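Lecture 7 notes: from sequence to structure.

We start with a single chain of 172 residues. Read the sequence below before looking at the structure.
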Amino acid sequence: MNLEQLLNAVPNYAKDLKLNLGNLLAQPELTKQQIWGTALTSAITARNPQLLKAIEAKAAEHLTPEAMEAARAAAAIMGMNNVYYRFLHLTENKKYVTIPARLRMNVIRSHGIDVVDFELFCIAASAINGCGACVDSHEKVVRDKGTGEDVILGCVRIASVIHALATVFDAA
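Now the structure, written as tokens:
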């Protein structure tokens, strides 16, 4: 089922999600790579196979193979980091933050696409996964590189709607 067919299957109670996604996938403040890389990262992170397959097929029309791989890498590395760094944030035992993570994260520097775009993908995954430490860290990187809040929120909006759609499809 392609993305259009899948969105046409959205129940009436979730119609706002369908309309929101259509608008968000055409945001003028974001590049195609930012839109579709964020959408793919978010679909992977949201874990609904049906939605992922549809988003992945549509994203392939707009992204290079390198950008597709970077979106997948962002979802993967944030899947690990969000758990680890959320634990550090949630625990009252501050000794944990003094111990080296000992987790490989080389892809954060070797993803092969624009740094800002990869960081935006990481923000989207971190927002879905609820890791405030990672959201703060990656958001600071993109702001330090001159990215405005409108671009950052544009990506987070995509993540929020894709996550909500995954919830709807999981419940069906």
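The two ends are 15 Å apart (CA to CA). Keep this in mind for problem set 3.
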